[in-house]
Amino acid sequence: MANLETKYLGLNLKNPIIVSSSGLTNSADKIGKLVEAGAGAVVLKSLFEEQINHEINNIIYKGEGFDYPEAADYVKGYTRDNSVGDYLNVIKETKAKYDIPVIASINCYSSDEWIDFAQQIQEAGADALELNVFVLNTDKNSNSEEYEQLYVDIVSNVSRVVDMPVSVKLGLYFSNLVNVVNRLSVSGAKGVVLFNRFYEPDIDIDKMTLTSAEVLSSSADMRRTLRWVAITSDKIQNFDISASTGVHDGEAVVKQLLAGAASVQTCSAVYKHGPKVITEMLERLTQWMDEKGYKSIDDFRGMMSYSKIDNPVMYERAQFMKYFSSYE
Question: Which helix (H) or strand (E) holds 203?
């Protein structure tokens, strides 16, 4: 029987499947269903500084008569403490109920909050911390190095004040992703998640309004992740890559592990099919390993990474033109 145990960020996981940060992981009860289905770890729904401030502003705006600054300050402090307190309680309750690594997630835009939230999360008992960082650079006078340095600074500052392992969930918008991952690896991070799935805008041409594009991923979205997992896992040594976006079945799990992923994260598949899809992924992974004669994940992890295949150019963009050149 195949042994699915693995390590991610130094944590022992019973298998490499992690349910990523989402509404699926915002309570201990919901997490219980994921544990029952076989999840190896969970990333809690992100603690968003913007969301906390939005709640504060709503309360103050609706509370007409806040003529005293002290009253507004009290509301701000009370709301913030309760929002963060609720989040910390989810960590404590989950850790008390289930024997599974709990990875917290935070998303901030002010430097002080990154550090404050991270310290509180560690004290609550989280096993690791995933930094959900996204800065959209729209300044035509800035350069990529300034933009990328923000990520490095955040990781460096947070890693200095916590002992738990830290990972960073990244988007695609970098001129040199390998360089960014390498810089993060020497700035205190223990791993990265490739890739974050952001809100994407769309336009309703009848109502002439801005709307949200499709939120959930499809299995086709895995292709970009697969390429960069294969490249970064090969070029950045002793650093964990977690593959996210487009992981919808057991074959996708196998592919990402072959590319070099330390773990895989799934979310949309669980939204679409329920927690049972995790069980099905594990069954397919086990079946494939048994068919190939692999006893452990490490027996085959990275066998199809960038330098392990005969022609690494297959993972590069030039192959795009070669592929389509056959179609006249």
Answer: strand 201-204
